[in-house]
Amino acid sequence: MNGARSLLATMGANGVTTVFANPGTSEMHFVAALDDVADVRAVLCLFEGVATGAADGYARVTGRAAATLLHLGPGLANGWANLHNARRARVPLLNVIGDHATYHARYDAPLQSDIAAVAGTLDGPVFNPRRPDDVATEAARAIAGAYGPPARVATLILPADVSWGEVPTPPAEWPVAMPTRAPAPDDDLLELAATRLRTTRSAVFLGGTATTQALMGLAQRIGAASGAKVMVETFPTAMDRGAGVFQPERLIYLSEFAVAQLADLETLVLIGTNEPVGFFAYPDVPSRLVGEDCHVVALAPPGTDAEAALAALVGLLDAPVVAPARGDAPEAPSGALTAQSLAAAIAATMPDGAVLSDESNTSGIHLYGATAFAAPHRLLTLTGGSIGFGLPVAVGAAIGSGSRVIALESDGSMMYTMQALWTMAREGLDVTVVALSNRRYAILDFERQRVGATGAGDASERLLALDQPTLDLCGVARALGVPATMVTTADELVSALRRSYATDGPSFIEVPLPAAF
Ligand SMILES: Cc1ncc(C[n+]2csc(CCOP(=O)(O)OP(=O)(O)O)c2C)c(N)n1
Q1: pTM of the model
Q2: Atom number of ligand 1 nearest to Cα 359
């Protein structure tokens, strides 16, 4: 038995049974060992950003870590942006990076780089076993580090000679990472939060792991008993939504409006997340969104027990059970394709239990409202602001959940990681990709005004328009093995969506839309 095989066996023993991979020479023993370890499924991704985003998506829908397999520093760097999104999503993830053999490093071969330094920027622990018989324990430590709490991107750097070297005495049982309990909330903070919720203009602010139906239901009771608003962060990791699910008010993305939304609050109680701040700085707009006099109570920061905090507040406030608001999903739309009819078409046709990977950007401005009473589903959003997350996350979410995934993908973002389509085709994943083609980086038109960057001449226009040549998105999808169709009306979109939900495997629907701004 070699080090690579002991890694895979340890992963299997710890439930890390899916690996999203883009291998090279230094990972060949890991690849070969896959034939010996049946309980680990490896999925080939044609770009590292697909592998890392898929591991993020898998964790968002299962709560469990998947692994990546990446090739030295350059492979890690190619995958870094979606690891950044995963870090911001606070999901568990085991990032496995092959390296040169330990004795080869000093020769400064072409692929040599400081992998640990790059991995260190992900805020998770980094492990680097130097002998084959250390691999299993270090891997178990890395998996424990990934689960935290808080959940993190943990990295295991595996030198080639550690991978191919013999493990002299394999353990009788593979080491298992022991789960660690998330710390309970502080009693004094609980009392303070309960008192302020009752006596001041306040809001409970949810994020992180607190956006499940069960936890949002507790928050709803707290809101009803205390008079506090219940809000949710702008970009939740995985949020239950739809008919029968309590829907908190979402913090608006635009700082100018978010400041107004929070302006009258005297108390903000944080559950599962940190204090909200502006996505960017803008001239004359504050970075902090709450008013100066607002008392922020960090009751359950990331990595602590959000459920215990909410349950304790329910108890302290003696909060009775309340029914979620009722409403109807929109009718299936007809007529022109617009941001409104797109949102209505998605909401009207959504299959029960679907996962919505939302990278619709400006074209999706009506989506959140329209889907409030759609069939129950789970919403995954762009936690770290690094575009190109939606298709890779859809891959991982489809593999992890086994449910229909709808990936709403704006054209500019899609072009970062469209290789994900090939993995969808190869693995036969039930993903409906809805490609929103406004042929612009439309949000940047708007951002340009917001930051006060005036001047809109030909040179700057060429950096915002996705034309000359026009992107043939259906052509891209077909080239990567996914059947594709372009719709021209809302009626056609509704039919194409219904057809795709009834068909196994991926499908691709291109929706031409006018720019929303
Ligand atoms: C990795 C990364 N690169 C660049 C950006 C900057 N950026 C933000 S939005 C955007 C364009 C988005 O265009 P598209 O996905 O077509 O959505 P639209 O704005 O047209 O709705 C860009 C380039 C980013 N957020 N992340």
Answers
A1: 0.98
A2: 15
